Amino acid sequence: MQDNGTIRLFKRGPTAEFRLFVLVVLALSLLIVDSRWRILDPARQAISVVLYPFQRLMLAPRDAVEHFNSWTDAAALARTEKEALQRQRIELAQISTHAAQLAAENEQLRRLLNVADLVTQPSVAVEVFYEPPNAFSHHLVFNKGSSSGIRPGMPIIDEGGIVGQIVRVTPFTSEAALLTDDKVSIPVQVLRNGLRLIAFGGNVSGKVEVRYLTADVDLEPGDTLVTSGIGGLFPAGLSVAKVDRVERDPTSGFALAVATPLSHPERHRHFLVLRVDVSDPETNTEGLPNGSQAGK
Q: What is the predicted pLDDT for the residue at 178?
């Protein structure tokens, strides 16, 4: 006989709704148990150990990008800090150099003030404006001129002594020929014995010469030459130069003395112009009163 019952081709299990209900109940139970007791900690740790390599693998691209960004940021920051330190070092070096220059100028100005107290003539403090580029003359241009009372022929001094003489003025600038320039001649006398002579700008660079001496003149190396005051332009007693050597020529019967100026115009920027009376109606073509170029 044939069985008339229904043939079951598939084994039917619990419905989906029932399985969802069971899973929800299980999840709630696990939440309650985990919140109140530590029973599930070993299982959690075991699962965490198993999942850690996969977590690191998944996060590896992010970590690589972060490390690269951190490295580039650190390199940029280091480069910026290095540039800032270099800039700061340069600025500090400039400030230090400027401070040293100001200290030297202040010291020189204090010495000039002491010199100004020693001379009886009124004076004008001047600063070097520029130095004309001329290989055949030794001149300086100052930042004050006729508006400050400066006139051609006035002497310039520093703490060492005579620097030169004003040769040309404008309302706001003045040009001076230095002591070593061949346009300048100064009546001097030997400090040791009072012998009166005339010093000229030397043919040797940076030197002055005392010419037209007799072979037996009482002049020796090391003698100090000071202004004699003759002529009225250069006040008496100002230091001029120190004699280096005396060249005597027995055949001609004359001698020549070479001296080094005691002033240092190449080292300083500030000088004093002595406002002596230069109102001589007879002036030469250079604007200097007669007698200031006796060696020309």
A: 92
